[in-house]
Design a protein that fits this description.
Mean pLDDT of chain A: 93
Oligomer: homodimer
Shape of chain A: elongated
Largest interface: A-B, 48 and 48 residues
Order of helices and strands of chain A: HHHHHHHHH
CATH superfamily of the largest domain in chain A: Tetracycline Repressor, domain 2
Helix content of chain A: 55-70%
Distance between the termini of chain A: 55 Å
Radius of gyration of chain A: 18 Å
CATH architecture of the largest domain in chain A: Orthogonal Bundle
Chain lengths: 177, 177
Amino acid sequence: MQATLALARETGYAKLSIEAVAARAGAGKHTIYRRWPSKGLLFLDSLLSLNEPVLDYPDTGDVLADLRRQIYAAVDLLANPPWGPLYQALVAEVQHDPAVAAGFNERFIRPQTDKTITRLKTAQDQGQVSPDFDLDLAMAILSGPLYFRLLITQEPMTHDYVDRVLQALFAGMSPRH
Amino acid sequence: MQATLALARETGYAKLSIEAVAARAGAGKHTIYRRWPSKGLLFLDSLLSLNEPVLDYPDTGDVLADLRRQIYAAVDLLANPPWGPLYQALVAEVQHDPAVAAGFNERFIRPQTDKTITRLKTAQDQGQVSPDFDLDLAMAILSGPLYFRLLITQEPMTHDYVDRVLQALFAGMSPRH
């Protein structure tokens, strides 16, 4: 998996191949195919092996500050070079390969969603998040605007953008009287 | 382009090829390559040729009802079969092909963004949307949670989901006092 990540960083996802990974790792390609039936699954496992504790939410008692810090860390890691383009390639693979989609959701999105809900539930109990806010939507609402920028407009993912999104989501679109 | 759409619906995006489109259209493949240098660009043009007026925003004076109606129409068209999987394939292509990414943004996302901002600006002037709401974020905030579901979790895009997202975005995450 280290060979996969090293090669992916050097050549990009499109040029990554199981053959090249086998050569770099000094292994037979059948050995690799036995464990990972597709390039997408090998790449998913390799990315997950980074296992960055940076993606955990802190709990300082200030939910907005904690979300900001966690999302800064996530976008610094996943939305900028070198991992940004590789993460985009992984999401592209998710559109074509149901096995990659299932693995990505079970092993990355679902645990992230659970952490997000847990942190927001605490904030809700402390009166920092509206008691009406639908926690099941938390991941879609908080990360949707980030994925929109990463995958659709492909504009740079700056801390300023994160700040503006959090401000808008907390304030809401309705006028406050 | 009709041949492209017909074939894409029959075979899916992965199996679509310029050769097959040429055969279906009774044209030479070089004729097609001269106009569309890649399958991604041909597919983008073909999808845009649908030119659904359904994607325009109504203005009945009730911004929440109008957004709901427009987003229902958009998800009915773009997030469900037959176009859902093809739209997912197009977004996957956007991750790999900068020419498709540029065309998709200039010719689809940018005009949709402008329409969204125009409708929300009217609502803001009428006091239905907070004067502090950052209109430049409107498209990311409104459509981000929909793209998250379409591209990441790939759960069904229901009207109920749209309703819950709009409710959460209008109310905001902060408690209202």
